[in-house]
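Contributing new complexes? Match this layout with pyridoxal-5'-phosphate.
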Amino acid sequence: MKEKNMYYKGNEKNGLTPITSNWMHEILDNQEVLRGVLEKYGSPINIHHLPTFNDNCERYKALFNSYDLKFQIFYARKANKTKGLVKQAFASGIGVDTASYRELEQSLELGGNGENLVLTAAIKNENQIALAIKNDVPIILDNEDECVLTERIAKKIGKRAKVGFRISGFVVDGEKLYSRFGFDIDHITNFVAAYIGDQKTFNHLDVVGLHFHLDGYSTYQRSIGLLTSINIGNALKQKGYPISFIDMGGGILMNYLQDEGEWNNFKSSLKERVSSGNNNLTFNDNGLGYSMIDGKLHGKLNTYPYFNKVHKDSFLREVLDYIDADTGLSVAALLRKHNYEIRIEPGRSLLDQVGVTIAKVVHRKQDAKKQWLVGLEMNMSQMMSSSADFLLDPYIVHTNKAEEEEPVEVFFTGAYCLERDVLLKRKVSLKRLPSIGDYVAFVNTAGYMMHFFETEAHLFELSSNLMHTGTNEKLSFFHFIDDEKIVLG
Ligand SMILES: *Cc1c(COP(=O)(O)O)cnc(C)c1O
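Output block (do not edit by hand):
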């Protein structure tokens, strides 16, 4: 067997081939480094490539510059908890969106300030608000109780609070988009005019912007959101409120897969297999959202849309190029005309190609159905999607050469004592059964997959996070920085 077959992607046929980067292949191709890193930091390990994060920042900057728009980009750090990426965000000249006291406090200690941070927490307590006011960090207010609290704390501290209003309820094709967040668009203008300003109920709040964040991934809905925000902003400016920015939140699509054909094939074969009652694609017949009820197929694929032709900057282009029927001007042209700074808060899409998660093979067994289960030293919470499955083929790194290949189909199982701790629901075909000590790599996991749902059940330790600084030299152990060792302040 040739050296180059020591690592390869699972599911050579009928797969879902992920887009990968050179830095990932360099690591997978270097067993010495892999062994060193996993021996030192344990399994699984999360590796983050800082130059790629910087490239993603540059791409968004270039896009806004091409429209000659005033803009600011805030990395939504809830998508990945590491300090290293927050530091890199500042180094790359963008800001950070924080959603809790500790996210805010730590971001301040890592170099954040009133210019490059924003607080958008869904639940805001006194500590968060006080910390934001003391540091001039804009607070995105969601409801009247938060206005009361912010006013009270600002008064107590003796400092004015910079605030933006989160708005929702946009009307798209005659229907109102529901959200549990924000002030309704029909009431926000009157609310601000009635209660905010000198001699009014809230006279310690400086209204500086509008904010929205939409569920789902529609560019059209975001265009409507921006147009509506521009109109509300204009109405407020006429009443004397200096609205300077409109923040359209995150949810910018990214693309995980190389091939649209593979994606379509997968979707149709899953439907077909679930319908036929012979689903051998997934673990224990998991329909990933589909099910058969009374002989009929119900439901829909309940996963992230992993293939997207329009993504990242082209997604934003679609939002900004939309033409407003009333004025005949594009969203971008209206933002320029009315002198608004556009803000975005991408989490997932800024982390595109930034991370990998690598785990060690601990055991192999055949269950009663004769399916091969490969036990990994990691658990389901350490690579967990908010949806039904992470639909990217994994990579396998064999640590021993084999005389011959003997193809096998496997599921990777994790350490939690739950029947459902199976790391990918899709079956993975390999050229041969992994050996104990081999490695399995999941690529493009930095956005939400590593940390968002990670728990310490069984008292398992949280996984270690390494920052890869990039290099033109031969890759070595020393190009990685332990996120724990990144010092604050
Ligand atoms: C979650 C969230 C984001 C980031 O969303 P992505 O889909 O990761 O880009 C941005 N802003 C707000 C207010 C959020 O809740």
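Reviewers usually confirm one structural detail per submission. For this one: The two ends are 52 Å apart (CA to CA).
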